[in-house]
Design goal:
Chain lengths: 336, 133
């Protein structure tokens, strides 16, 4: 079939052909015509105009009332034409925005990147996946030569760009802390003041900060209203909740944080996460905490990173491959 | 500039009067049916803005005649509250989010030239032109 030219002559011929034959072929060509018109951003009122002109040429004796009725139709279509053009321009804008956000998301990835430490004594598995393009979760590792591993996990209440901007600030504040070992309660205390000063009061950040000392295998931690973590006793095959009090960051500059210590036995695991893991949804149903733990347990014999990856795959599938919230899961296991 | 004629906008009914006068002038200049319909829609939009946001004002028409082209200018004037953020009202999807009317971006699309002056507390003047092709 020859390519259709979008002009009056062509439309007139197609119309004439259809009126004569009432043929499906002509209707198919009409469909092609409308598709091509849309490609060329021709608005519906212009098609009506071409129709009117074609009719006038085919039937010069067209009754006056038909002519008037067609003019009436044309008038009603003008606003649709405008809406169509507006739709086109909004679509272009949306594409622009999308590509801008993906550039920003890449930048964020670079900004917030952290290196998962490879330590003989503790095995680390970590995964953070954003629900949309930008991640409102954050995790960070700091390892020093003396053998302490600092782990931060944070979650901004909220998603998307605002949450991501907020996280970048947290990252820079943490970078500005001195290199030496700092207690979790001190770190949360100073981040709390940064957030309180710099972030809108409607935005909250929860954070868990833990310090694993690989020399004596103690885990020191504090929490700023963060989702409770879990301690897995390998021998009993049971989980114990690591739930400690602590106000979310940014509420009051006066807030102080208590810190706790736990001794870690060989083979035991520490599970840290954000609510994107515990608040997975299957359809309208929120999954139970036990489900998360059961899934982790079922993979407990695998290397830490594989556990984390398998758990993510499990819940990704459960949620139909569309995350509702940013998903961050970290597992530490004492190896020796 | 040939002549200028105006329609005062005080009540909704005046919008129809403005459309009628504008369409007559457009027809005399030689605009075809579609362009007449577009010009009328632009007039509606401008007049309705006056009626809704300024209360009263007027819409004026000029038949333009240059050496090589003819056209129509529509000028909408009011002493209303003015527009604070012109950039915002010129943005697609801002005023039309409810699906009502074409908004000023629509008027701009319907016409060839678009110019707006607005001062907060003093009023707004919008001048649009469509040339005969």
């Amino acid at each position: 079939m020859s390519t259709l030219k979008l002009d009056l002559e062509n439309y007139k011929e197609l119309l004439q052909e259809y009126i004569r034959s009432k043929d499906e072929q002509a209707l198919y060509q009409a469909e092609q015509f409308s598709k091509q018109s849309m490609q060329q951003k021709i608005s519906p009122d212009e098609i009506i105009n071409i129709h009117i002109q074609s009719l006038q040429e085919i039937y010069p004796e067209m009754p006056e009332y038909i002519q008037s009725s067609l003019n009436f139709l044309l008038e009603t279509m003008i606003s649709y034409g405008l809406a169509y053009q507006e739709h086109q321009s909004l679509r272009e804008k949306q594409l622009e925005l999308k590509s801008e956000i993906s550039v920003a998301a890449n930048m964020q990835k670079t900004l917030l990147s952290t290196v998962k430490p490879e330590i003989e004594e503790v095995e680390v598995g970590a995964l953070s996946v954003p629900a949309k393009q930008m991640n409102g979760d954050y995790h960070h590792f700091v390892y020093d030569e003396k053998g302490t591993l600092g782990i931060a996990v944070a979650d901004v209440i909220g998603k998307g760009v605002p949450a991501a901007l907020c996280m970048s600030m947290i990252k820079y504040s943490m970078d500005s802390f001195p290199e030496m070992r700092m207690d979790p309660s001190v770190i949360l205390g100073s981040l709390n003041r940064v957030v309180e000063r710099n972030v809108d009061s409607s935005m909250f950040i929860t954070m868990f900060y833990g310090l694993y000392d690989s020399r004596d295998h103690t885990f020191t931690y504090s929490s700023a209203g963060h989702e409770p973590g879990f301690y897995y006793h390998k021998d009993q095959g049971e989980f114990e909740e690591i739930d400690v009090p602590g106000l979310v960051l940014g509420v009051s500059a006066e807030t102080t944080y208590t810190q706790y210590v736990k001794e870690v036995e060989k083979g035991d695991m520490i599970v840290l996460l954000t609510d994107g893991v515990t608040e997975c949804r299957q359809g309208e149903r929120f999954i139970e905490q036990e489900e998360v733990l059961d899934v982790i347990k079922s993979y407990a014999d695998l290397p830490a990173q594989e556990i984390v990856d398998q758990v993510y795959k499990h819940f990704e599938r459960l949620q139909g491959f569309q995350l509702r919230d940013d998903f961050t899961l970290i597992i530490l296991r004492r190896n020796v | 500039m040939e002549f200028q004629s105006c329609v005062n906008i005080k009540k909704e009914w005046d919008i129809v009067g403005a459309r009628q006068l504008g369409r007559d002038i457009a027809r005399k200049i030689g605009f075809g049916t579609v362009d007449q319909a577009r010009i009328a829609t632009a007039i509606s939009e401008l007049a309705r803005n006056i009626y809704l946001y300024a209360g009263t004002g007027k819409v004026c028409f000029e038949a333009l005649e240059e050496i090589d082209r003819k056209g129509i200018a529509i000028i909408a004037m009011d002493d209303g509250p003015g527009i604070k953020e012109i950039g915002q009202v010129m943005e697609d999807g801002f005023s039309t989010s409810g699906g009502l009317g074409a908004g000023l971006p629509g008027v701009k699309r319907l016409m060839d030239e678009f110019d707006i002056h607005s001062e907060e507390g003093k009023g707004t003047e919008i001048r649009v032109v469509k040339w005969l092709r």
